[in-house]
Amino acid sequence: MAQSFLEVKNLRKEFGGLTATNDVTFSMGRREIIGLIGPNGAGKTTLLRLISGILKPTSGSIKFKGKNITGAKTWNIVNMGIASTFQNMRPFRRLPIVANVMVPCLSPRAMKRGEWVKKVEAKAMDALEFAGISDMALEKASTLSQGDLKRLEVARAVATDPELLILDEPFGGLSPAETELMAKSVARLHKGGRFGRLHSEGPAMIIIEHKLQQLMKIVDRIIVLNFGTILADGPPDVVVKDPKVIEAYLGDGGTTCS
Ligand SMILES: Nc1ncnc2c1ncn2[C@@H]1O[C@H](COP(=O)(O)OP(=O)(O)OP(=O)(O)O)[C@@H](O)[C@H]1O
């Protein structure tokens, strides 16, 4: 049987008496882009944190490209090719925006193509250009609006040339116009190619998002979590019609949820 790109098996995380992810099992292919949805508290962010190494699971396993990464350190996971953005954004607020992106550019993974430090700023600028905030590169990160902080998060993640990019609510707090722009950038990145000195291999993606209309346009598969358990897993048009999903999350309005 062909080896999965990402293989999550019986992944469980308990916080005291609370089971945040309850034996979650799924796998994904190298070219997939998955939307991870579900009600508040369903366990989506916990699942993301387990895959990116911020949390250690209570039990279960995670394999990436055939290697067991369960409980591995975050920086090892980043160097293997998994990058994430988070809801609670924590940039180096006192540093210029471009310096925030130069830090991930100095990771062994980002440097592995034989780049030297003098090229790092140029590469960081290309990541900012990709995210649409290069004109503010020398401002302090503390001056950024919520929407632009999201862009900085994306720039920091793409600067490591990830093979799997995990985005936690990339459209959260953005205006409809900003959401449209971010959705287009994400879809473009998934296709891959060169963006200046940035080389995107077209990462696989897992995107947590509540703005379903926009999410549906860019993903080819949806996983629905509810009370830490996978309720549905399939193509977006099938999942949104699933009575279990409508009852637990979508309500009568279906995909009008934004
Ligand atoms: N560090 C923690 N300590 C204790 N409980 C936690 C912790 N992190 C998450 N939880 C709990 O685990 C459950 C799942 O939370 P999680 O943040 O993963 O849900 P979510 O689906 O991402 O929700 P949202 O859509 O609101 O972001 C919730 O009941 C939450 O309160």
Automatic annotation (TrEMBL):
One of the GO BP terms on file: D-alanine transmembrane transport
Domain ABC transporter: start-end pairs: 6-252
Gene3D superfamilies xrefs: P-loop containing nucleotide triphosphate hydrolases (3.40.50.300)
Gene Ontology MF annotations: ATP binding; ATP hydrolysis activity; L-isoleucine transmembrane transporter activity; L-phenylalanine transmembrane transporter activity; L-valine transmembrane transporter activity
GO CC term (a single one): plasma membrane
Keyword Membrane belongs to the record: no
Keyword annotations from UniProtKB, A to Z: ATP-binding, Nucleotide-binding, Transport
InterPro entries registered for this protein in UniProt: AAA+_ATPase, ABC_AA/LPS_Transport, ABC_transporter-like_ATP-bd, ABC_transporter-like_CS, BCA_ABC_TP_C, P-loop_NTPase
Protein name: Amino acid/amide ABC transporter ATP-binding protein 1, HAAT family
